Amino acid sequence: MRKIFIITIVLSSISLAQIDNGFKIARLKYNGGGDWYNDPSEEVNLLKFVAQNTNIKTKPVYEFVDLTNGNIFECSFLFMTGHGNIVFSDIEATKLRTYLENGGFLYVDDDYGLDKAFRREIKKVFPEKELTELPFSFGLYHCFYDFLNGVPKTHEHDRKPPQGFGIFINNRLCLYYTYESNPSDGWADPEVHKDPPAKREEALKFGTNIVVWALSN
Q: Domain spanning 17-216 has what CATH number?
């Protein structure tokens, strides 16, 4: 279901310059050897879809920001994915926590093989918090398109049910994590994973909900 949508952006201390010039998604580069850089067409295609189907002005480019040396505070929305290992230093964990506490948003998609490392490293960022599975009634699943069963199943992986987890700061979802679903692969160019058109459209609609929710809450 499409809905009439007027976006209200609320980002406390994170720069709004990129939104004024067109909303962008920054791929988060991390250490540890995992392929943080895979499928660079994903964000570009999602941003094009968002611009075509909402009133959000986007800048559909692939950009990444280095967690070690980059200024993540210039980015309102970070995207993290990969198949392998992740390592956050203490300084990086503190930096990411500060970013998230000050209005930033991080979407993490397990591209198959990321889960163990991600769960380990996010405890460095928020040792006092747990990843909480979001109920199907949660607003992200209904804010623009309706996903009555929560996260869609884009790729099978281990044939487990898809799940969406979150970390909240002052009741704001600052980190969203999808597991056993891999919607971001559905954003890639059609020839990359050869997903059926309906499956790609479903994934792009779901990505639109993530963007809408991140920018309006």
A: 3.40.50.12140
Query: What does the alpha-carbon distance between residue 216 and residue 209 come to, in Å, rounded to a whole number?
Result: 10
How is the chain split into domains, by residue range?
17-216
Question: Which residues are bridge partners to 31 per DSSP?
Answer: 87
- Beta bridge pairs of residue 163: 179
Its pTM stands at 0.90
Sign of CA dihedral 110, 108, 90, 32: positive
Given CA atoms 87, 187, 157, 130 in this order, what sign does their dihedral have? positive
* pLDDT tens for the chain, residues 1 to 217: 444 333 333 333 344 444 567 999 999 999 999 999 999 999 999 999 999 999 999 999 999 999 999 899 999 999 999 999 999 999 999 999 999 999 999 999 999 899 999 999 999 999 999 999 999 999 999 999 999 999 999 878 788 899 999 999 999 999 999 999 999 999 998 888 788 999 999 999 999 999 999 999 8
Interior/surface letters 175-198, b for 16+ CB within 10 angstroms, e for the rest: bbbbbbbbbbbbbbeeeebebeee
Angle in degrees, 0-180, between the axes of helices 197-216 and 41-53, rounded to the nearest 10? 70
Give me 69's structure tokens.
Answer: 């040396």
